[in-house]
Amino acid sequence: MYYSALYEENRRTNFFVTTDIDEAILLADRLLVVSNIPTQVRAVIEVDVSRPHKLLDMIENDHANEIKIAALSILHEEAMKSFSRSSSTTPVMASWD
Fold it and tell me: Of 2, 25, 26, 27, which sits most exposed with the smallest number of CB within 10 A?
């Protein structure tokens, strides 16, 4: 993966924004999970898995999967808050025959 190799080459701090949890865990040493509105840092989760991170290793790593579950749990809470703040009207359903 390009970004992992780039980090290993120069060891500089990089900041990525992504909606892909697996990608975030694969690339990160630390995840910042943000809330929806107002946007604030909800959690800082350390990805304390040995480097270099390799996709297969991350998939099979129990701790990496615990990190994923923790991040997804926070994101689910934020999504549910967003849904509850949206219009209380019944959604419009469309059908094409």
Answer: 2
What are the backbone dihedrals phi and psi of residue 31, each rounded to the nearest 5 degrees, phi first?
Answer: -105, 135
Burial 35-63 (b: 16+ CB within 10 A, else e): beeeeeebeebebebeeebeeeebeebee
User: Global pTM?
Assistant: 0.72
Q: Mind listing the pLDDT tens digit for each residue in 42-96?
A: 999 999 988 777 888 788 899 999 999 999 999 999 989 888 876 555 555 555 6
Are the C-beta atoms of 42 and 75 separated by less than 8 Å?
no
Tokens of 77: 């809470």
What does the DSSP assignment read for 3-55?
Answer: HHHHHHHH--------S-HHHHHHH-SEEEEE-SSS--EEEEEE---PSSP-H
Please tell me what DSSP assigns to residue 87. -
Residue ranges per structural domain of the chain:
2-81
